[in-house]
Amino acid sequence: METSISVVIPCYNCSNTIERAVDSIAKQSLNPVEVILINDGSKDNTWEILQKLQNKYEKNWIKIIDLKSNSGPSVARNVGWDLATQDYIAFLDADNAWHPEKIAFQYLWMCANPHVLVCGHEPPRSISNSYPLEPTLLNKEFKTCAVTKNQILMSNPFETSSIMLRRDINYRFDSGQRYCEDYFLWMQICLDNHSLYLLDLQLTYVYKIPKSLSSNLVKMRLGDISNFWKLWKSEKITFQNMIFLTGISLLKFIILLISPKFHANIKYFLSSIHNN
Length: 276
What we know:
The chain has 276 residues and is an alpha/beta fold. The protein is 41% helix and 20% strand. It has two domains: 2-206, Spore Coat Polysaccharide Biosynthesis Protein SpsA, Chain A (Alpha-Beta Complex); 214-274. It is built from nine helices and eleven strands. The strands form two sheets. The protein has an eight-stranded mixed β-sheet with strand order 3-2-1-4-9-6-10-8, sandwiched between helices. A three-stranded mixed β-sheet has the order 5-11-7. Strand 2 (31-40), helix 2 (46-56) and strand 3 (62-67) form a beta-alpha-beta unit. The longest helix is centred in the C-terminal third of the chain and has 20 residues, at 214-233.
C-alpha cells in the first residue's frame, strides 16, 4: 500500500550511510510514493551512490538532484520540498534510519487529524550498524500532545528525522541559516497559531553521534540566539521575550560547558514537559 508521502533526504558526504537510510524507507509497512535525494555538493562519491540507488529501485521511486555547491541542509530540504508532489513530506537525515512502521504511525495519525500541520516523535535511539526490525507496533497505544508556544520557545521538542508535515503549508527552512534552522521553522509555525504535535513514540535510529566540538557548540548557540532575534524582528515575540530567551540560551550553554551531565538532566526535564 502506498501513502501520499514524499520523503526528502539532504545528502552531504554520506556515501557510507545513505544506502542504509534508503533501505529503511523501502522496508516500511506503508510505502511513500517518492523519495527525493538531494546531493548537497558532496566531495566524496555520494553522487555516484545516489545514481546506483535510483537504478536499484523501481522506476521513478527515487528522484535525485545534484547541487553543485554545498549550501547546507536548509537549501537542500527546501529544494526537495519544492519538488515534492505528495500531500505530506517526511524528512530523514542520511545517517539515520526509520523503524519499519514509522510512516504508518504518523501518516495514519496525520490523516485522522488534518488540522495538524506538523507532527514529530521522540528523539532517535543510538544503535550499532544494523538497525533492528522490531515487532509490530501498530497496536501499541501512544500518547500525543500539542506543543504550546511557551514550550517551543524554551526548547526544541523535535528532531528533523522525526518530522512529518503537510506539503502545502506556506513555510520553508531559512536558506541563509545552517544551525538551528529547523528549530526556527517549528517556532514560526507554532507562533502563527498552527497545530504542532508530539507523538510518544521512538521511531528513528541514529548511527552517527555528533562530535561535541566547541566550534559547533558556539555556532549552534549563535543560531539559537539568531532565531530569537529574527522572531522579534518579525514581531512574533516581544523585545522583553527576546532578551529573556537569549539569556536562557546563554545560561544553557554555560551549563553545558561546565556540567554536561546537568545539562542533559535539564534537557530531559524540558522533554518531559513537552510530553505532559
